[in-house]
Amino acid sequence: MKKLVLMVLVMAVALLGIAGAEQAQDAAGWLSGRSFEFSSGVGAWATEITFAEDGAFTGVFHDSEMGEDGEGYPNGTVYICRFHGQLSGAEQVDSVTWRLTVTALEAEEAVDAETIEDGIRYVTAEPYGLAEGDTILLMMAGTPVEGQPEDFYFWTHLMETDPEAAVLPWAVLWNETESTGFVETPAAE
Fold first, then answer.
1. CA 75 to mean position of chain CA atoms
2. Residue 127's closest CA among 64, 85, 93?
3. How far apart are CA 97 and CA 74, in angstroms?
4. Which of 45, 153, 173, 182 is the 20 to 30 Å CA partner of 137?
């Protein structure tokens, strides 16, 4: 009898492991081909990320400071960072939310490198809005918003679009570590 109970427990743990791996694949698979943007909605800056398979992503941060000019760059300065990274370890929190971790994040150019083109100074920056080790919640459209921090309403743009919303109208990547929100952007037609 003890052997039977032990065998059933081993099989149950194995099945849970398979189910967990499938849920992680579901979250990464759902992200594949989707894009998200982190911005205040005002100003000339944003961080945009686009997902490939298995949680891998590429992104770009840009911040235009057209009043930040000087000799050789009368048209201002643009801070920019092209980067790539990986979200891993998807853990299903509930039916519409997964928790993932930024397990890799790397800029594609050296930080603080400067070039001047067409009267604009380009300065390589770091990625903005996420860092390696950050915990990210993938929240699907329909996720209840009650109880979220005030920053959540600002970064997900609910303050300006629908401050009384009971659920998210779009998917969000909420960075729990940095309290920043990336909103899903429509697919290009």
1. 31
2. 85
3. 47
4. 45
Percent with pLDDT over 70 in the chain: 84
Cα gap 134→10, rounded to integer Å: 33
Please check whether residue 181 is in contact with residue 130, taking contact to mean a CB–CB distance below 8 angstroms.
Answer: no
State the virtual CA torsion across 182, 112, 105, 100 in degrees, nearest 10: -30
- Classify 79 in phi/psi space as left (phi over 0), alpha (psi -120 to 50) or beta: beta
pLDDT tens digit string along 32-45? 999 999 998 666 89
pTM, to two decimals:
0.81
Could you tell me the two tokens for 157?
Answer: 């743009």
Question: Using CA atoms, how far apart are residues 98 and 108, in angstroms rounded to an integer?
Answer: 28
Q: Which residues of 27-58 are buried (b: 16+ CB within 10 A; e: fewer)?
A: bbeebeebbbbbbeeeeebbbbbbbeeebbbe
**Strand locations in 39-165, DSSP E?**
45-51, 56-65, 77-94, 97-107, 114-117, 120-124, 135-139
| Rg from Cα positions in the chain | 21
Which of 22-26, 48-52, 88-92 shows the lowest per-residue confidence on average (mean pLDDT)? 22-26
Three-state secondary-structure class, residue 4: helix
- 34, 184 contact by CB (below 8 A): yes
Say which residue the tokens 């790539």 belong to.
84
